């Protein structure tokens, strides 16, 4: 169950990052509220996952999902650039996430 909580927490990190971008510096109410609610839910689920998962694994996976997901949303939804170096960086983060999962005992 901890891994499910962790993946959902990571996905919510993507949601709050995107909503924060859309909030225009928290000057737009709707996206600001989405960002805050998603942030709180993401933190809560991360905390639940840390009851059984090691700190380093949980935090690395959570931030990795958020980083790769935010990169993908930026490219696909916001039209941000996807250079070879940025794609390679995202793939390296993804490889690290897989290795963290495979090396975790929980």
Automatic annotation (TrEMBL):
GO terms for molecular function: transmembrane transporter activity. Keywords: Cell membrane, Membrane, Transmembrane, Transmembrane helix, Transport. It is a multi-pass membrane protein. One of its GO terms (cellular component) is plasma membrane. Its main location: membrane. One of its GO terms (biological process) is xenobiotic detoxification by transmembrane export across the plasma membrane. Pfam families: Multi_Drug_Res. It comes from the Bacteria. The chain crosses the membrane at residues 33-50, 57-78, 84-102. The keyword Membrane applies. It is found in: Cell membrane. Belongs to the drug/metabolite transporter (DMT) superfamily. Small multidrug resistance (SMR) (TC 2.A.7.1) family. Gdx/SugE subfamily. This is Guanidinium exporter.
